């Protein structure tokens, strides 16, 4: 009985403390917001200062009293705050000059400003300009004793933006462009960065073809992946390439100095954007409808011109109007057909692609496929076809047009280059 009473007391104390904290936060919000509103609306305030006050004041209030974890968004007010401080200093200098005190204090203020720049600019250079040693990655070894922070030798958790990392990803992009790398990949780097250099190559966390690791973090490598080679940046090994399955032959070394100009001189192609960016927009939009409220929004295709033996990656984007139970019995079929309508090559789902029976009506359902062309495939035009087929009967789910399957696009198989 005593334990039950103690539990009740603890609950009361907990909710009371939460209520007090909420009241304190609301009081602080009002205490800061009202003076800011009064300043901005004051007729005596110069018009040019009003947007500056809003720029500095609103982020300060939101980050301080509204958002629970603002992280580095606090810095949104820094530029405006610096301008406000500069305005205040300028008015101070004018006030001193009017009272004949500027002759003495203006040099002092100027010297203080120069000293501040002399201390802060080298620090900014170390953090955001210098490419070697990389300050954030090498911390605290790369930090001069002059720039000790309140966190000591430990980096704060998260919120890292703008630090230069030179890992040699242009080499990876060029290897994909030359089809020396074909297939999906995963990496310990963020997709918004890697997606730009790989030109939207399929990133897959489930059994990717390649594992691309910056800074040699070999502990992330599964047992069935083997080192294929590495990228050298200014003679330093910065990026390791692992391939699923056994690797035959010596390790390969690619130098950024030898490859960078090739990547830079290549036109940016029309590559899939929804993987490196947040917005899920198909590279090639469609609006194809099947019976039962099934819609194909579009698709991504990394290459439409291939040579025999090469691989292409296809990503289909599906949407359901409502959950469709019959899809439990449907298979998604993608085929590459020759001029006679005969299926050629190998088209298979990858990256643990969800089957139609597991699609949901609450989001976008993406299904990736890889197509591998036979080495002896004749040059010509081939049709990429997609459809939904019943697993038992083999009957196709009809499109709204009545057709059984949808011709998606045409792939061109170019002649293989002559042997050297």
Description:
The longest helix has 40 residues, at 2-41. The protein has three domains: 2-99; 169-264, no CATH class; 284-413, Immunoglobulin-like (Sandwich), CATH 2.60.40.1930. The relative contact order is 0.07. It has a five-stranded mixed β-sheet. Strands 6-7-9-13-12 form a five-stranded antiparallel β-sheet, with no helix packed on it. The chain has a five-stranded mixed β-sheet with strand order 8-15-14-10-11, with no helix packed on it. It has helices spanning 2-41, 49-65, 78-98, 102-128, 135-138, 169-177, 191-197, 256-264; strands at 185-187, 210-214, 225-233, 236-244, 252-255, 284-290, 294-301, 305-306, 311-320, 330-337, 343-344, 346-349, 365-372, 380-390, 406-413. The protein is an alpha+beta fold. The chain has eight helices and 15 strands. Helix 3 (78-98) runs antiparallel to helix 4 (102-128) and helix 6 (169-177) crosses helix 8. A hairpin with a 3-residue loop joins strand 6 and strand 7 (294-301). The chain is extended and about 95 Å long.
Strand residues, percent: 15-25%
Order of helices and strands: HHHHHHEHEEEEHEEEEEEEEEE
What value does the Rg take, in angstroms?
Answer: 30 Å
CATH superfamily of the largest domain: Macroglobulin (MG2) domain
The strands making up the biggest β-sheet line up spatially as 1-2-4-3-5
